[in-house]
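Annotators were shown the component list below and the corresponding predicted structure, then asked to write short factual statements about the assembly.
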Amino acid sequence: MEWKKNDRIQVRIEDISQDGSGIGRLEGYTWFIKDTVIGDFVEAGIMKMKKNYGFARLNCVLEQSPCRVEPKCPVAKACGGCQLQTMDYKEQLRLKERKIYNNLKRIGGLDGLILPKGREHTENEKELSEAETKTEIVEMEPIIGMEYPWRYRNKAQFPFGKDKNGRIIYGFYAGRTHTIIENEDCLLGVEENKEILAIIRDYMKEYHIPPYDEISHTGLVRHALIRKGFTTGELMVCLVLNGQTLPQAKRLIERLKTIKGMASISYNVNTERTNVILGEKQVHLFGPGYITDFIGNVKYQISPQSFYQVNPVQTEKLYRTALEYAGLTGEETVWDLYCGIGTISLFLAQKAKKVYGVEVVPAAIEDAKQNASINGISNAEFFVGKAEEVLPEQFHNNQVYADVIVVDPPRKGCDLVCLDMIAEMAPKRVVYVSCDSATLARDVKYLREKGYEVKRVRGVDQFGWGVHVECVTLLQRVK
Ligand code: SAH
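Structure shown to annotators:
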């Protein structure tokens, strides 16, 4: 059949792509259709076609899948921040579990991997019997989901602008554009955002303070950065300005201070034409310049510039899983590669003899050292540099040693030199914390060739309604 742009097609959704689009097949040709879920039968209009696949826009759902839900957020489609707002949360978890499973099986060559008990297999994921598999049999542990998958983000950055009538608006940039989608209450953010943003807007109106305009590079208020310490209830507000001063700042402070938990108010100067949100200069108007929060029993001081996990509740579960997989008795020397501000290192340090953290961003290591010190942790040491450079240097010059190595790399995974070095140092266990199961699978395959076997695998959901999933894998040395 010949299709062309704007033609209508009717198709059953059978799968979900990496970026959350529904996938349907007609006559051997694959269609990607956003805002659909597995089991939907839909009508869609053709937007773009390639040789073997094409993209179509959802017109209407002819038959609803049982896992389809009404998006809670009124701007779900336009905003694009969430990719799975039409999918039941339980189904999202199953989808994420499958993604890890399929990647480890296909890319990682781990054909003895089994989905957690009670999870049905589809046609292409047929379960293998023991006799058929060439690799270790590993049953995945059930993914750790959220009890309540809303309001879980402790940080939000709202851009300010004007609509075509000159009214002050704020919200989010529509997927990959610079158009502001007005949104006064993102349902992933904290309840307080709404009131804080309204106070800022009313103050701007009253004192004629213009929002920033990207095109003409004029106006003052670019972004409002809001953070909350979930365990302490402390709130931080930082206005990012295209200018050096905030007129009538006192008025704003007075009003913001009426909100329960308000602990830090500041502004940040960013006069560059740039997409980077924060500039270098920070001016504190109220409070100590930071808020406090805890992950587990480790205390953190978070400033507007600090890196800090955005879903601290699930982060704690992720790190507890990593700690469990590390199997520490108090005697071990542990390396934590890609350690960021040392969150995992400080968790491990409480159960290990010694922890070494390695991270490429110097400011993150400054934070890591400070975090160790405010928690009275003295058995953690930190290095600035690339894991693939620091590790060989320390190994060859200082004969360092490792019982356990934990890695938590960015999405591109570990550098090959780093993996070779891990294999050479030959720790008993490697705990791989991953935010991208495709690169995890690639690295697992490599480590398996170097004498490691996969023992445990578990997904942790940190981003409900989004497509990303975290995963912890335990590899044990066998050769
Ligand atoms: N485990 C950290 C977060 C890890 S995110 C925490 O708990 O906070 C990945 C980190 O790897 C980032 O902080 C990034 O700056 C760092 N990174 C990226 N490439 C690196 C490399 N080659 N060597 C060391 N660190 C690297």
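Statements collected:
1. Residues 38 and 401 are 48 Å apart (CA to CA).
2. Residues 89-106 form the longest helix (18 residues).
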